[in-house]
UniProtKB/TrEMBL annotation:
This is RQC P-site tRNA stabilizing factor. Pfam families: S4. It comes from Haloplasma contractile SSD-17B. InterPro entries: RqcP, S4_RNA-bd, S4_RNA-bd_sf. GO terms for biological process: methylation; rescue of stalled ribosome. Keywords: Methyltransferase, Oxidoreductase, Peroxidase, Protein biosynthesis, RNA-binding, rRNA-binding, Transferase, tRNA-binding. It comes from the Bacteria. Key component of the ribosome quality control system (RQC), a ribosome-associated complex that mediates the extraction of incompletely synthesized nascent chains from stalled ribosomes and their subsequent degradation. RqcH recruits Ala-charged tRNA, and with RqcP directs the elongation of stalled nascent chains on 50S ribosomal subunits, leading to non-templated C-terminal alanine extensions (Ala tail). The Ala tail promotes nascent chain degradation. RqcP is associated with the translocation-like movement of the peptidyl-tRNA from the A-site into the P-site. One of its GO terms (molecular function) is tRNA binding. Associates with stalled 50S ribosomal subunits. Binds to RqcH, 23S rRNA and the P-site tRNA. Does not require RqcH for association with 50S subunits. Residues 1-61 form the RNA-binding S4 domain. The lineage of its organism: Bacteria, Bacillati, Mycoplasmatota, Mollicutes, Haloplasmatales. The gene is rqcP. Belongs to the RqcP family.
Amino acid sequence: MRLDKFLKVSRLIKRRTLAKEVADNGRILVNGKVAKSSSKVAISDVLEITFGNKKVIVKITDLMDSTKKEDAKNMYEIISEE
């Protein structure tokens, strides 16, 4: 699954266009490497997302093409928030 689609479906970022912009600005790391919006993600990948001065690290636990709001939180596990 593409990184921008995962971020939107999991509701870590609300809109896919915003997810694409954040990724293309180099503010998302996948397994410690800078990732573009078109990067492929898989189960057990670790994402490090920087929102301004806030940093969130999550581990992907599931991939789904679409989800309901309550199921979106099952797609990832938060490792840390700073």
